[in-house]
Amino acid sequence: MDRSFFLKIYILFGIIVSTAGAQSIINTKHNLSVSGPGTIKAQSEQEVCIFCHTPHSSSPIKPLWNRNDPGVTYSLYSSSTAQANTGQPQNSSLLCLSCHDGTIALGNVISRSNDILMSSGVTTMPAGRSNLSTDLSDDHPISFIYNSSLANQDGHLVDPAVLTGPVQLENNMMECSSCHDAHKDIYNNFLTASNSFSDLCLYCHEDPNWNNSRHKTSNKSWNGNGTDPWYHTDFTTVSENGCENCHAPHKAERHNRLMNFTTEEMNCLVCHNGNVASKNIQAQFNKAYTHAIATYNNVHDPTEPAVIQTKHVECEDCHNPHAVAGSGATPPNASGSLRGVRGVNSNGSAVSEVSYEYEWGYRCHADSPDKPGSPTLRQIEQNNVRLEYELGNPSFHPVEGAGKNNNVPSLVSPYTVTSKIYCTDCHASDGNGAPNGPHGSAYPHILKFNYITADNTPESSQAYALCYSCHQRNSILGVNSF
User: Fold this and answer.
1) Of the residues 122, 211, 411, 464, which has the fewest C-beta atoms closer than 10 A?
2) Distance between CA atoms of residues 257 and 252, nearest Å
3) pLDDT tens-place string over residues 143-168
4) Residue 472 CA: distances (Å) to CA of 58, 417, 482
């Protein structure tokens, strides 16, 4: 028997094994033979498995590999929140990259003295999503040890001992084959499991707040994130698209944490501009007075101290996208929009998750050495709002607790002397139907209503509209009308 006989038997065996898994490689883009269904295929080569495997004289890498090691040094993924020790690609990942890094001709196989010619003049992997290049810093990390120690250290990873489903490790390492099965394309992009509702991601990633978060449960129609929707062409809602509303596992525009957009706020505003989310947050940032998120980019870091050291404001400073929910609350309790956000308590100590809204504001407006200055000049400068609201003070607005004055006849119903209020009862977007929170306002200091602080300002309902939203004007002035 000659070599071609064994090769045919090997090809037949590969087809049978693949078919037993409910789909044959013949019907996928990894069939690079002339019979392949994809646009990248050989001019005349009829053998299917030869592009990856050979029964004789193979590379000393299993399984009977028919391609050379790319032999290049790759740029690796890096992030301040990554706990894994990512190394140069190895195991099956190196085999995948022998095609997908674009450095070796697709038809360059060990078992042939000449390259297999590809149609349409193709040699190496054409530019596009499938060509990962030698820069892997914008791709999900691979070739790192994934063990219980890493899971415990990270705090948001599943213990690999429970990975008994389609996501499998290779030599205790996370590799391309953990998420991709090169012989089956049941779920698109050769995924080992469907990523509808982020099912594939959630085999390894976990967050205690995710299942009840708005980004997990929202059925709002999703209409694209501005990039090539490589993984989620069939997904139609925010919930179904899950992690990939914000993250791209390959070719991410912003490399650290694999974000879809380089500009940080665009990862939020692509949906929160009225096209997907019900409230148009982007419009608020076009107002005269805002939390100026466009001024900063990639400054916020999840590992930064609870007390902000360098002034900045980005969406992630106020919201945790993995935890944010739509649940309301009563003062001073934090609402669902602040769920999972770090803060500083009334004693100036860091808290991993705020319980009260004021703890969220104290990160920037209390003990921060670079906090904004006081908007109103005073004889004694005091711009630490944590100290201003201390319950031991002679008087204060009831942010941390009820006020001390038991006789406040000017209060507008339903306020009473035992009421507590939010910072955002005063500092918030102006206008009827505006989204909650201090995103942007027509009034200075992001106030919900007008409040003039200049000396010699004539009193009027318009000049002090902010005060009169809680206090009756005629009671303050001691007249029936004015």
Assistant:
1) 211
2) 9
3) 999 999 999 999 999 999 999 889 99
4) 87, 14, 12
